[in-house]
Amino acid sequence: MYDDNITLSGVKNEILTDKQGEVLFYQSDLPQSKKFYIESYGCQMNFSDSEIVASILAEEGYSPTREMELAQLILVNTCSIREKAEDTVRQRLTVFNKFKKDNPGVMIGVLGCMAERMKSKLLEEEKLVDIVVGPDAYRDLPKLLQNAGDGQQSINVLLSREETYADIAPLRLESNGVVAFISIMRGCDNMCSFCVVPFTRGRERSRDVYSILSEAEDLFSRGYRDITLLGQNVDSYKWENPDGNEKINFASLLEKVAKINPALRVRFTTSHPKDITDEVLLTIKNYSNICKYIHLPVQSGNSRILELMNRTYDSHWYKERVEAIYRIIPDCAISSDIITGFCSETEDEHRETLEMMSWANYSMSYMFFYSERPGTLAARKFKDDIPEEIKKRRLNEIVELQRNISLKHNLKDVGKTFEVLIEGDSKKSDQYFKGRNSQNKMVVFPKLPGLKPGDYVYVDIHEANAATLKGKVLTK
Ligand code: 5AD
Ligand code: SF4
Description:
This protein is an alpha/beta fold. Among the domains are: 6-156, Methylthiotransferase, N-terminal domain (Rossmann fold), CATH 3.40.50.12160; 176-291, 2-Layer Sandwich (Transcription Regulator spoIIAA); 417-473, CATH 2.40.50.140. 33% of the residues lie in helices and 26% in strands. The chain contains 13 helices and 24 strands. Strands 1, 4, 5, 6, 7, 8 and 9 form a seven-stranded mixed sheet that branches. Strands 20-21-22-24-23 form a five-stranded mixed beta barrel. β8 (131-133), α4 (141-149) and β9 form a beta-alpha-beta unit. α7 (250-258) packs parallel to α8 (278-286) and α11 runs parallel beside α13. The chain is globular, with a radius of gyration of 23 Å. The two termini are 38 Å apart. It binds 5'-deoxyadenosine (5AD) and iron/sulfur cluster. Iron/sulfur cluster binds next to α5.
């Protein structure tokens, strides 16, 4: 799940609190305390990494701020997945540099996926940044900050085969105190031909199961009720203890997390169609607190394109997996990622993607047109030969179709009752709460006295549009 939009992380006021509103420390009590400002781009994994970075910086005496003007350290956690994401980061770096000109003590750092790709450009040619840190080198930040402070170039973009940051307790930024993300693995070994992630994030490695469980238990004890297990390909999670007598796959990890407490909702993303097993599906079915929602990116509905994409499944295999999901978990919602206009894609092949979308009945999709990334298999082997107007027209068709499918999907829910976990005020009105059902649909309903974020309620749905369900809390 990728979002090219900006999100600011930090705390608004002078008080830093934890999710339950418990005060951790007052920034005004620490006049000498240094502040950092961080912007995160891209996938949920990046947002999760920013929380690890925040934790490392807190140890160094830094506290987060939402206002760049207050910061001595400005960081941007970057995404390389599409060109647009990289362009946005470059624009932001120009803004930060203007600020630095008037405030010479300030340091600027680039974190994440762009670090490796852009290191020499950013540091030497354009002199836009003081520090460059790749996704596996965050532990090195204190040393890099020190070096940069002494006027040296500071860079570490080494990728690791082991680093999972298992022992670092993330400092939750932008938290509503109810929903949190736990990174269970890093990197990706899949080598989809369009994708830069295996190059920027390195080899796949799974995190120690016990560190995941204690993070989840800790979150639950602090009031969190909805956690998402994060990985580029969660189905290939694999961990064994040093003696080799305990082997944990994704299904057993899911089960262990679900057993922490029935009141803790468990979600996960992203599943790979080639790896998702019936064992995982049965585990989802068997635990009411494992959410009935699977993000299963298809990328294309056509087998020739899937082969060029090196997805290692064809449309027949994908359909079989979707059938298995609906057979084993009839009330499951499925969402997808779709790339349109991949190298040499014909109109007929594009139509097969549209057909797949209707057939699979996705509750929602993340849709993109193909953006060639330097160094990827596709960039080396194939021509990016679909003209931009055609890519855009196909993308519009896909977006339009998904809107219709989502609307129908949601209209079918009118008249049903869902258990909803309250997450906070709805965007449009503080008279309404918002929350999600197990199928990951946003549900909006009028507030009732005594209800608060973190509570479960049953909501009768009486209205729907393509994005949201609306209803009323069921009172007995
Ligand atoms: N161009 C367009 N979309 C891409 N994605 C990954 N790489 C590219 C690219 N080069 C999309 C895929 C993936 C999602 C996270 O981003 O759909 O599943
Ligand atoms: Fe990229 Fe494919 Fe790995 Fe996803 S599974 S991160 S699309 S290489």
